Structures are given as structure tokens and as C-alpha cells.
Amino acid sequence: MSEINKDQVVDLSKPAGEGMVRVTFLPEGRTVEFPFDSLPYDGHGEPMSFLDVAENFGIFLDHACGGVCACTTCHLWVKEGEGGISEAEDKELDRMETAADVQLNSRLGCQAVIEKPGTYVVEIPEWNRNYVQEGKPAAVVKKD
Fold first, then answer.
1. Residue 115: what are its φ and ψ, rounded to 5°?
2. Beta bridge partners of residue 78, listed in sequence order
3. What are phi and psi of 28, to 5 degrees?
4. pTM of the prediction?
5. N or C: lower Cβ tally within 10 Å for the chain?
């Protein structure tokens, strides 16, 4: 596996290349790109999950439970690419029942696994129900 370039700049004027995964994290607007199934795995969420991608590229996606589907701090909304990610399993669906502001496109970042190359856009809610419970600081998002 190759070294991950955490500071890469992705040319959004061109589509993702053959065999590539492109993920944009909102509201930060940070886009990363890498060859499918090439990320090193360090035990945060399922391999190739959105949490795994975020961890590999230094993008803040809270995961108070360590990415084992025991909380909802990595709750996100899939805005694009839902056809290329794993179906939610019962353990994720059960956990999502405790999440705030669940939408039809809600997933846990630790469980939503990218299964094929393509373009994905996910939004990390600005709030998180477990910040207060876990004493976590909110991510600072710079606004222009």
C-alpha cells in the first residue's frame, strides 16, 4: 500500500479516475481521492468506511466508541454515492434509533463501507448528540 497524501489537492473539474474513490466531506468542503481498496487500516470503524477514510486523511469525524457501532457520534448524511456503499446491517439500524435528526440518508460513518470506486459526498452534522455526554469539543468549522 502506498503512503497517503493527507495534503493532496483534488482537481474537481475532472471526474474521479478509473478505479479511484473520491470523497467530499461537508461542511468542511474537503475532498480526498485514492485508489479503491488501498487505504491502510488502523482499526477505526470498518475497513473502507467513511470513518476509515476520514482517519486516514486527518479529517475530524468524532467516534467516541472507537468506531465499533456503540454510539452515534459518527452519524453523517450521505448526499451522493449511496449506491456504492454497503447496506446498513441490523446493529447499525438499531443504533441509529438513538441518533438525533435521523434522515433517509443517515448512516454511521464507522459502518457505511465504500464497496466500489466512485464519487461520494457526505455531510457531518454540525451538532452531535454525544458531545455533551462524552465531553467532546465541537469541531471548529471556519466560515468565510
1. -105, -10
2. 122
3. -60, -30
4. 0.83
5. C
